[in-house]
């Protein structure tokens, strides 16, 4: 009788799959519109090689291992497609772009006491952490730092969508008195490189370079499989 009851209970109340089994069959679906927008930002910002971008995109998912092979292949194909498109357009860019001018200005600023950082993190907190780390490294080798200037992911995204670039900047000491001095130094250095920057005079506001066309050439590595 006991065995009969067990058999009936097993039929009426079959065991539920455990969490491990459920996880094995679960998958994450890629939102192709959102993914394409993120890929565009990464590709056209010009800081990452093609092979690195796939890793960055995958790391953006909470459980990358749950992505289907079809979705992974779509991501790889979309990255390759956008890289190929960008490389074709790069051939029509001027030899010296606005970004090249900005980079040249940053080199001069770094040599003259201003920490100047490209692509400084996702958030302002990230950026200020990078500034602090750079300040400490310069201090350890007896290189003085009077101020800083940087732009981050948010500024790059806005520049890709428009015709201007915002820069965050400031002074390390006596902020009220020295921030305008740092602003003047940055503006003059940019002007010598052919870029026009303006600032409202409010130390809580960013500086604006306009016009500014974001054209940064991508790293040469990682393009072996691209067919133009």
Descriptive report:
The chain is of the alpha+beta class and 228 residues long. It folds into two domains: 30-92; 98-209, no CATH class. 53% of the residues lie in helices and 9% in strands. The chain has helices spanning 2-12, 19-25, 32-45, 50-59, 69-90, 98-110, 124-140, 153-161, 175-192, and strands at residues 114-117, 147-150, 165-171, 197-198, 207-209. It has a five-stranded mixed sheet, with helices on both faces. The longest helix has 22 residues, at 69-90. The chain is globular. It starts with a helix and ends in a 19-residue tail after the last strand.
Stretches with pLDDT under 50, minimum 5 residues: 4-9, 18-26, 222-228
Helix fraction, binned, reads 40-55%
Cα gyration radius (Å): 25 Å
Q: Give the beta-strand count.
A: 5
Give helix and strand order, one letter per element, not per position: HHHHHHEHEHEHEE
Number of structurally distinct domains: 2
Key traits:
single chain; 228 residues; alpha+beta; 2 domains; 53% helix; disordered C terminus
Write a brief caption for the model.
Helices cover 53% and strands 9% of the residues.
